[in-house]
Design a protein that fits this description.
- By secondary structure, this protein is an alpha/beta fold.
- The chain has helices spanning about 1-30, 40-60, 70-90, 95-115, 120-135, 140-150, 180-190, 210-215, 220, 305-310, 330-335, 470-480, and strands spanning about 240-245, 250, 265-270, 275-280, 290-295, 295-300, 315-320, 345, 365-370, 390-395, 415, 440, 465, 485-490.
- The strands form 2 sheets. An 11-stranded parallel sheet has the order 1-3-5-7-8-9-10-11-12-13-14, with helices on one face.
- The chain is globular, with a radius of gyration of 25 Å.
- The relative contact order is 0.07.
């Protein structure tokens, strides 16, 4: 089952990479013909990122099916890569690249209006749509995948309608061109109560993968996972459980309440949209949980499950929604205290605006990582209560404007990463109190122009990674201090996947 799921994910990513690489190769060549002062370096740098994505797929393909955890690790990395690509295309890509897509959306909106007014019949609308879509790339299957991803990212803003594919039961964003009859026949078969599995056979190039993707995203086929659909299982001795699925709604298995020795739980949705998970109260019945990892889910606020969190040593939330502004909860009411938490990680939680009050009651925490949370505006004022912290990573939080003064109380901190925080304007003077800080990554903080004088007190600092302007200030400081053994690494803005192997 895992092998099949991995093949679908890799096939989808491979198709997207192929289409994007071709387009960005053309953009890079066109960009090089411009005067140097008009060139945009992001094209070539993002192209390198895509090429590294191809290398990641090769690693997955070269992994034996018997090495389950290796395959699972690469699966997580592939999903992270999809998030990185989506972020670049939606937030960082220049406006002129979006022009083609915007024109397409405008055309589709116009076609919908003509169809609704009765001035255009269905066959004529389909013919016109296919004509416009064919301009995206030279491969119809690639166009279908790209449109599907655009639809999943809500880029159409309601411009597409389902009327053209009602006989298939698919939205226009699925766009399985030429496979409508086959999809309808397969869907009719799968909806029969006695059928659970259908095999699809045929020579290469016939569209088997496209057909499977179209069906997997169909709302009638995808459906929901309810509590009574789980088989009765007994895993009373199991210490780790990994749940992989693709659905819009998912119910945790009831046998979780009987897994008294469970220490590690991974819930991973590999679908194109985030899923709502029900049955989370079952987690409170776990006797000795240590690690929970949730990916691509719609999760409730952390305060609602504070009793479970108090038992954990590691929590990881990736590509999750539903967190929003958690500071609105009263810390006394939520009693959010995490006394034995060692490792706390939140990545690509796209609607996270503010962390909950009391979340810094982690007296044992050694690693704290919040990355790619673009709406996060501020960190807790009592961040300094993380007294055991050795690693702090606050990277790619585009809305973060300042660091709290209490950061100077992190007396054991050895590594800090504030890279890609584009709105960060200054560092607090209290940062000079971090006497054990050895490495600081502050690359691509575009608005950070000046270092506070207190950084001269960072006697343990050995390595700084930064842009050229800030690097000049560090080098100047280094020249005035005979005792400072500091290596300043100047880097250019780039999009890297090196962290995937970390």
């Amino acid at each position: 089952m895992d092998s099949f799921n991995g093949k679908i994910a890799c096939s989808r990513l491979d198709t997207v990479l192929t289409g994007l690489i071709e387009e960005f190769q053309l953009l890079s060549l066109s960009n090089l013909r411009k005067p140097k002062n008009e060139q945009n370096p992001s094209y070539e740098k993002f192209l390198k990122t895509l090429m590294k994505g191809v290398e990641l797929l090769k690693k997955w393909e070269g992994t034996s099916c018997f090495k389950f955890f290796h395959s699972l690790r690469y699966g997580f990395q592939i999903r992270q890569l999809e998030g990185e690509i989506s972020d670049f295309l939606r937030y960082q890509m220049p406006v002129n690249i979006f022009l083609e897509v915007k024109n397409l959306i405008a055309e589709l909106t116009n076609l919908r209006q003509q169809y609704e007014l009765g001035s255009m019949d269905e066959s004529k609308m389909n013919e016109t749509i296919f004509k416009h879509v064919s301009k995206l790339t030279n491969d119809p299957q690639q166009n279908a995948i790209i449109l599907n991803q655009m639809g999943a990212d809500n880029m159409f803003d309601g411009a597409l309608v389902e009327v053209t594919c009602n006989h298939v039961g698919l939205g226009m964003s699925d766009f399985a061109v030429g496979l409508e009859k086959n999809i309808w026949n397969l869907k009719r078969t799968l909806l029969q109560s006695e059928v659970t599995v259908v095999g699809v056979h045929g020579m290469g190039g016939l569209g088997k993968t496209t057909l499977a993707l179209a069906l997997s995203n169909d709302k009638d086929i995808k459906g929901t996972m309810e509590e009574d659909q789980w088989c009765k299982m007994n895993f009373c001795e199991a210490e780790a459980l990994v749940l992989l699925f693709s659905a819009t709604n998912y119910f945790l298995p009831s046998f979780l309440s009987k897994m008294r020795k469970l220490k590690v739980l991974v819930v991973f949705n590999y679908g194109s949209k985030r899923a709502t998970v029900k049955g989370l109260p079952l987690l409170s019945s776990l006797a000795q949980p240590k690690t929970i990892r949730l990916e691509r889910l719609i999760v409730p606020p952390l305060q609602e499950h504070s009793k479970v969190l108090q038992k954990l040593e590691k929590v990881s939330l990736s590509l999750c929604e539903g967190l929003g502004n958690m500071s609105r909860f009263n810390s006394n009411q939520s009693n959010l205290k995490l006394p034995i938490m060692l490792d706390f990680n939140m990545d690509h939680c796209c609607d996270l605006e503010e962390l909950p009050l009391g979340i810094c009651d982690m007296s044992s925490a050694q690693k704290w990582s919040i990355t790619n949370c673009h709406l996060l505006r501020k960190l807790p004022d009592d961040l300094g209560r993380l007294s055991s912290l050795r690693m702090l990573r606050i990277s790619a939080c585009l809305g973060l404007k300042e660091l709290p003064a209490s950061i100077g109380k992190l007396g054991k901190l050895e590594y800090m990463d504030i890279s890609l925080c584009e709105c960060l304007k200054e560092l607090p003077e209290e940062i000079g109190q971090l006497k054990k800080l050895e490495e600081l990554d502050m690359r691509e903080c575009a608005r950070l122009r000046k270092l506070p004088k207190s950084v001269g007190g960072l006697k343990s600092l050995k390595h700084v990674i930064c842009d050229e302007k800030i690097g000049q200030q560090w080098n100047r400081l280094k020249s005035f201090s005979a005792t400072m053994d500091l290596r300043v690494e100047i880097v250019e803005a780039h999009f890297s996947l090196d962290w995937l192997d970390g």
